[in-house]
Design a protein that fits this description.
The protein is 39% helix and 12% strand. With 449 residues, it is α/β, with parallel strands linked by helices.
């Protein structure tokens, strides 16, 4: 296609975006894709959401949400406006002007990048790709994925990126359960490998997001996201290591961090816990370590942080074992343990990569009788790595039930839990999240994990 034809296609798309007449497609309607679809709708666009799960499409089309962090009312309003529809029919990609890909990027069992969802999505788009469409990858991945993996698959259509269609990368930035930010208020980085594509990507997101930060290429934008999450992983590892050191010295890590954050420059607070979870921090650093091997560059710092965070659940269990022995003269084997919280962070129902699941299985392997309480997860759904926990149910929150346990282990600090009651009903509470800082009575039953 000639330069004039490319410019014509780009101008036509830019006009449709600026007038908000474009139809936008979002592939993957999970914790990232659904909030993005809502933001696109709120900006005035018509939106088609694509997913492989028919049950999810039916739920959304009935005006109901499948996520705790997304109220049913938002979905109902979108449906009532007749500008949102969910579907499993990928032929409808031909109806959209721009498509944003929000599919998972997990690790394989050997901790290598698993790009199968990106690849299968690309193969679904390619035969339906039409001239002038903008395709944006949002899934977190290593630098080079957009051009080295997705682009060749899309070009099997016979169309060429940067000439017949436009390919960009914009890393998702979601923080489920955070009431201070929504998709449209979180600044968004966008990258394209040519000026026309970069301008179109910026034109798209500037209609949806309050602040857009353009960078020089897709690879740079991919590196931005990896850097953000490695920064967090390394600092969490550091504070988890400091927790162990200070505990030996009789120093409260939480008091240290709270005092340190009073410094208005040169310091940012990070907090310890039972491990790291979620869809980003436990996974993304290893995408870069894998890619770095191609360039024969060691990633010792990143890998060391991964090792420290990987050991956090073991430390927590060791604290529980010591507390049971010293305070109750009990061994872990045969003790009844209540695990408080299965979600990877507070106030959400998201269990992806949650350290609680690993801790649950580790406790059972050591002979403990384990149950859980999580107000957001009534039943444990099937997971790829923790099949043994599938179908387990949340216990009832009452004195009779909880007082039957020897100890509680707080792994997630949900706000809607009465920690005062917890401390009064159980003889021992090991707290990995400082959730019991406000408890006034029975503090002698509390142990920092």
């Amino acid at each position: 296609m000639s330069t004039d034809s490319t410019n014509t296609l780009a101008k036509r798309l830019d006009e449709r975006l600026s007038r908000r007449k474009a139809t936008l497609g979002v592939i993957g309607l999970g914790y990232v894709g659904l909030p993005l679809a809502i933001a696109c709708h709120n900006a005035g666009f018509s939106v088609i959401g694509f997913d492989v799960r028919q049950e999810l499409a039916d739920t959304l089309n009935s005006g109901r949400s499948n996520l705790k962090t997304v109220p049913h009312e938002r979905i109902a309003k979108m449906r009532a406006d007749n500008r949102f529809e969910a579907t499993t029919d990928y032929d409808r990609l031909r109806e959209v002007d721009a498509v944003m890909i929000c599919v998972p990027t997990p690790l394989s069992k050997h901790r290598d990048p698993d790009l199968s969802f990106i690849e299968s999505t690309g193969r679904s788009i390619a035969p339906r790709l039409k001239p002038g469409q903008l395709v944006v990858l949002e899934s977190t991945t290593y630098p080079g994925t957009t051009n080295e993996v997705l682009k060749p698959i899309l070009e099997q259509s016979g169309l060429r990126a940067g000439k017949d269609f436009f390919l960009a990368y914009s890393p998702e930035r979601e923080d489920p359960g955070n009431p201070d930010f929504e998709t449209n208020t979180i600044p968004r980085v966008v990258g394209g490998d040519d000026p026309i594509t970069a301008n179109l990507a910026r034109a798209l997101y500037s209609q949806i997001i309050e602040k857009v930060i353009p960078v020089s290429s897709c690879a740079t934008a991919e590196a931005v996201k990896i850097t953000e999450n490695i920064f967090r992983a390394v600092n969490i590892a550091l504070v988890n290591e400091l927790k162990i050191i200070y505990a030996k010295m009789g120093i409260d890590i939480w008091e240290v961090v709270d005092a340190a954050k009073s410094k208005p420059f040169g310091y940012m607070p990070f907090y310890p816990g039972p491990g790291i979870g979620g869809h980003c921090i436990p996974i993304d650093p290893f995408y870069l370590t894998w890619k770095a091997r191609e360039f024969e560059v060691p990633t010792r710092f990143i890998e060391l942080a991964g090792e420290v965070n990987e050991e956090a659940p073991t430390y927590v269990i060791d604290v529980l074992i010591e507390a049971l022995s010293r305070r109750l003269q009990k061994s872990l084997n045969g003790s009844r343990i209540l695990l408080l919280g299965l979600a990877y962070k507070k106030n959400v129902d998201d269990m992806r990569e949650s350290p609680s699941l690993r801790i649950y299985e580790m406790l059972e392997k050591r002979g403990a009788k384990v149950d859980y309480f999580d107000p957001n997860i009534p039943v444990v759904p099937a997971t790829r790595e923790h099949a043994s926990l599938t179908g387990k149910t949340c216990v009832s929150w009452n004195k009779e039930t909880l007082s039957s346990y020897d100890a509680a282990l707080i792994c997630t600090d949900h706000d809607d839990v009465d920690y005062e009651q917890l401390a009064s009903w159980l003889p021992l509470v090991v707290d990995t999240r400082n959730a019991t800082r406000g408890v006034k009575t029975n503090r002698d039953r509390l142990v920092a994990g």
